[in-house]
Amino acid sequence: MMLPRTVPGLILLLVLIPRCLSADAPARPVTPNASPEAVQLLQYLYDISGKQTIIGQHAAPLVATTQLGRVYKMMNHYPALFGQDFGFSAPGTWDGINYRQQLVDEAIRRHDEGFIIVLMWHAVRPIEDEPVEFKTSVQGKLTDQQWHDLVTPGTAINERWKSQVDVIAWHLAQLRNAGVPVLWRPYHEMNGNWFWWGQKPGEDGYKKLYRMLYDRLVNFHHLNNLIWIYGANEIREGVDPYEKYFPGTDVVDVLATDVYHGTFKSDYDSLLSLANGKPIALAEVGRVPPMEILTSEPRWAWFMTWGDPMGPGSSFADLPKIREVYESERTLTLDRLPWVTDKHPTIHYPILK
Length: 353
Description:
Elements: E1 2-7, E2 10-15, H1 36-48, E3 53-58, H2 66-75, E4 81-85, H3 100-113, E5 116-121, H4 134-138, H5 144-150, H6 156-177, E6 182-186, H7 206-220, E7 226-233, E8 254-259, H8 265-275, E9 280-285, H9 291-296, E10 300-305, H10 319-327, E11 331-332
Parallel strand pairs: 3-4, 3-10, 3-11, 4-5, 5-6, 6-7, 7-8, 8-9, 9-10
Antiparallel strand pairs: 1-2
Helix pairs in contact: 3-6
């Protein structure tokens, strides 16, 4: 299915993600009046669930598209999913906020080439302004009073938070206007205690913050291109169960977890139970899951490798097993996505500013 897409001074034809209808009712995003592209992408996740797993790769703001080139050189395939972060730190640094417009432009280019886009945001504390340091702000804390003020409309902290969200919304709106659906993973790993939004129980805790963000982006900014991901952390000592912070099925499209230390199985079972039919995913992994995992746990809709494509501590001795994953018919690389016609996208090397 092809629809014209209007870009200033140019008419492009955008190949939309095919909607493979099944006997079941079609999937609908939790966002009212979701964009056709978001509907089609979510439907695709439902359609492949239990059959195939999408391969993804995250790229830090400074590294950007060069990470895709690294993957291709090692695997002879591009990942199908391309992940980026809106960042928080000083211009020119690893997570520099000056790369945000480049991130948006890159997401539009990559979407036009067929990549699936996933975005996240290591958000600054709403008691300070960007740029910030990771340890002191993103991993900082809020007092109980500051948290109370954050989730209370009309307070100074609440208004500051809205202003910070509005900056990100402006960038997401460009993607909406360009017809780019986004797998949106806000305030991730909330069941751990290492981010300022982490381990905030109760109805006025994390659940309320998530719903505040949903309301601001969906109802105030009218962003209808987002597929909302509840992205937790693998369960281990000091990390709470998934259900403790789950904000509700009415504001979550996909349930996901980040696995760096575990064996996947217990997290797989726990997420499946909580998802109640919604897709589940490995939002971050330290290493590419081996084929035996992806075969025995087929409902993982995608996985996204964080950092080095081979994972920390890997060596070239591990490369054959990783290539096995990239070559398998059970996985989806860019060239195996059904709507992709250009199997060899252009790699743009970033210009540091």
